[in-house]
Amino acid sequence: MTTLINDIRYAARILKRSPGFTITAVLTLALGVGANTAIFSVVNATLLRPLPFPHPERIVAIQNQYKAVGLDSASASVPDYIDYRKQRQLFSEVAAINTDNFNLTGIDRPERLQCGEATSGLFAVLGVQPILGRVFTYDEDQPGKNQVVLLTSGLWKRRFGGDPGVIGRTIHLNDKPYTVVGIVPPILQWFAPVDAWIPTGFTPADMAPSSRGNEYLFVLARLQPDVSVERARAGMATFGRSLAQAFPDNFPPSSGWAIRVDSLNELLVSDVRNGLIVLLAAVGFVLLIACANVANLLLARASGRMRELSIRAALGAAKWRIGRQLLTESVMLGLLGGAAGVLFGSWGVSLLVKSGPQQLPRLDEVTIDGRVLAFTFAVAILTGILFGLAPVVQLATSNLHDLLKQGGRGAAGSLRRHRTRSALVIVEVALSLVLLVAAGLLLRSFASLQKVDPGFRAQNVLTFGLSLPPAQYSTQARTSGLFHAVLDRVDALPGVTAAGAVNSLPFSGDNSSGSFLIEGHAVPAGGTAPHADQRIVSPGYFRAMGIPLLRGRLLSDADRQGSPLAVVIDDALAQEYWKGKDPLGQHLRRASDGAPWATVAGIVGHVQHNALDSKLRKATFYGSYLQQPTQSLQFVVHTAGDPMLLANAVQREIASLDQDLPIFDVKTMDQRVAASLANRRFAAWLLAVFSFIAMLLAAVGLYGVMTQSVLQRSREIGVRMALGAQSGDVLHMILRQGAILAAAGLVAGTLGALVLTSLMKSLLFAVSPADPLTFALVAALLLAVALVATWLPARRATRLDPVNTLRYE
Fold it and tell me: In this model, does residue 411 exceed pLDDT 50?
């Protein structure tokens, strides 16, 4: 212990004696360690930290899937939920959730709330206790007894000032009285961001077998203590087969239906896992490049310390003892770099939380906690050992006694050090190329996505939602009348060129789909009915969104209640189900509700509804809100100028019709499309930043090696110039040496990139992992940077005075 303390003291004195070297090494390491700390903080919060529930590994989501129609995950129906609750051998509790819009009224100002409608088992599934009051009882899961509400702590503090006296108070949601019975923490906010919870209260009609096709519930369950996720999957697969036999009309074999069971945490992070792993690997590469740079610094510094080390050896110090001292200095540098890296990392975490995509799960939980600090501490020590090995290996292969006789300038040792430093530079260039190629591929994918035609016009379009309380707007005439009045008022505002509405707006996160029937096309026994997205729109929706009419006509105000039902289909549906025949005048209807037949009046262009990179071209048909009742619509307003400037005017017009109707989810269409790309943009630009840092570090490393090479070859250069060599010859010689190092790094990096980027295939869009253009551009960029880094010391070499150089030597 005493010897170790002495090593630490001596290392501190040595580092203090060379402040320039110490600061340079520490800052280089701090860049690498700080980037790792910041990204690991995100990985820790998103992928590693357990969900904030008791035994979160036992919480699973149960969903339907219909692989034959491209639905990898789908909601469950009420009868499905009832059946799942009976699987007591697998689940200790099962709960169902649905979200809906409710208008909070009766207080100072109306507000639209996102409310969760849940069965009382939700809080047992999650293991959540109320902050105040109580949660739902099983008796309250019934119509007429479910007029109670749980406020989340956020709504409680924001609208009720955190007053405990709110328990027992009555508030009005959609003009119905609800008694506040408890305050709960903001559970599932990263999955279902709600303001309040109310009991579901399923009706007998909801629970009837005929409602099995009405799938709108998200089902959560808690596994029995001795049941694993794999066992639950196997058990539900067996149960699913018996269910499919009992209800062949609902689950025909041709639909590819199955029950899907996923860990809630796995379901939450499935879309971002690969991207975060790529970023973590990228910052690992940056750290390796930083280590190589510091190793080069240590090797250069070791050249000046060889006489000191030789004297220590002559006085009896063993090589292992000297090596331990060198490693102690390296580890101290690593720890100093780690401490500075924590500071850099904390800045990075703040920046990531502020600028990161809101779609990133649990982004608000990203902090530098104990696990992150332990990771940083381990990385600091490991990097200290890693970059400290280079001078130790050089020491182990050197004859210190011979170096002392030669004044510490052994040619063989210098040659070995130069080879080691050159090898480190080759590694740096290779790692930089891998990072730059990965970043280039992601950026090209992002650029390709931005060029995808979504099927509508996103520019200058304001969007907002409006939900009508059923108690006040209980008839088709009242709901359609209010929506029609809103559209007329908004359309008349200055600067508005078109206004429309739809029940599920593209890129809003909402969707409605289902099976439908085509007149004259019977579904064979065991077969699957056609499936499509189904929209309810106003006649002006297509014009407001810029969706082109291809054939026939659009919906109009004449398509109203009492007139024959009319629908408009998109070209994807026409191509898929009519296959070259003319669908105009043909008839279809929804399969779930026994609706009357509707006539196909027109064909419009296809719209990308969920994502620009969706490989599934989901067919869609549109009906009029004047013929199909709905309580909630999302409005689109095309304007001549900045659409957000109209938001206040729109709210005033609606308030003049009904002061208790707030608008919500006010965004431009451009913002919605941009939000759908947020995760890809986040990963692409972060990787671009890290690869740029890696390139700079590699350039600095190459510059350092070439500078040291010029110093070591100054006698040779002086002799060459004395014998008649021109400045251009010397410049060419040094540039060639640097180009050889860069070329070796480019070859090694290209081979590595071909292997590693193939793992990124799922993150790419319209770009091959081996895209030759990206590889060529990155190689050219790195070669240019390498030549600039080599040119600076080469230019210095051409200015050497051969007379002074030879005299010094």
Answer: no
Closest CA to 337 of 401, 387, 268: 387
Read out DSSP for 407-471?
Answer: TT--HHHHHHHHHHHHHHHHHHHHHHHHHHHHHHHHHHHHHHHHTS--SS--TTEEEEEEE--TT
Give CA separation, 616 vs 73, 489, 691, in Å: 14, 37, 33
Assess contact for 233 and 27: CB atoms under 8 A.
Answer: no
**For residues 302 and 252, what is the distance between their CA atoms, to the nearest angstrom?**
75
Which pair of tokens denotes residue 40? 């690991």
Instruction: Please give the single-letter amino acid code of residue 463.
Output: T
CA distances from 573 to 531, 596, 606, 624 (A): 9, 19, 9, 18
Instruction: Give the three-class secondary structure for 800.
Output: coil
- Enter the tokens of residue 59: 């919480």
Q: Are strands 513-518 and 531-537 parallel, antiparallel or unpaired?
A: antiparallel
Cβ atoms of residues 589 and 556 within 8 Å: no
Tokens 């067919």 identify what position? 619
Q: What is the pLDDT of residues 445-476, one digit of tens each?
A: 999 999 999 999 999 999 999 999 888 888 88
CA dist., res. 750 & res. 747, Å (int): 5
Amino acid at 806: L
Q: 155-164, 416-425, 506-515, 788-797: which has the highest mean pLDDT?
A: 155-164
Nearest to 197 by CA among 139, 255, 254, 114: 114
How far is the first Cα of the chain from the last one, in angstroms, to the nearest whole number? 45
C-alpha span between 413 and 711 (Å, rounded): 15
SS3 17: helix
Task: List the structure tokens of 459.
Answer: 């520019």
Residue 591's alpha-carbon distances to 516, 529, 531, 596, in angstroms, are 5, 8, 9, 10
d(Cα 504, Cα 510) in Å, to the nearest integer?
5
Question: In this predicted model, what pLDDT tens digit does every residue of 579-632 receive, in sequence order?
Answer: 878 999 999 988 766 678 999 999 999 999 988 887 777 899 999 999 988 999
Q: Which pLDDT tens digit goes with each residue over 193-242?
A: 899 999 998 988 899 988 888 888 999 999 999 999 999 999 999 999 99
Both tokens of residue 484? 């029609």
195 near 204, Cβ under 8 Å?
no
Rounded to an integer, what distance in angstroms lies between the CA atom of residue 121 and that of residue 128?
11
